[in-house]
Amino acid sequence: MKLARTALGLGVRELAAAAGVAPSTVQRFESGKGDMHSRTLDGVQRVLEGGGIVFIPADANGGPGVRLKG
């Protein structure tokens, strides 16, 4: 999430506000200290994808990742 957020030039507070979650929720998730409810994660994902992020699933060539739409 942090890589995707940074690629869009969003701060923690900006992403949290756009997704309707608390900044501490984003910080906790990015630091690996907590999980998100699926509904919360879906909302954050929609914001990031709406900004042009494409989530890449893991495959034989490597782990999961993100890229910007071209």
CATH superfamily: lambda repressor-like DNA-binding domains
Instruction: Give unreliable regions as ranges.
Output: none
Instruction: State Rg.
Output: 12 Å
Supply the CATH architecture. Answer: Orthogonal Bundle
Shape: globular
Helix percent band? 40-55%
Output the CATH topology: 434 Repressor (Amino-terminal Domain)
CATH top-level class: Mainly Alpha
Taken in chain order, the helices and strands follow as HHHHEE
Largest beta sheet: strand ordering: 1-2
Description:
There is one protein chain. The protein has 70 residues and is mainly alpha-helical. It has one domain: Orthogonal Bundle (434 Repressor (Amino-terminal Domain)), CATH 1.10.260.40. 50% of the residues lie in helices and 11% in strands. The protein has a two-stranded antiparallel sheet. The longest helix has 13 residues, at 38-50. The relative contact order is 0.19. The mean pLDDT is 95.
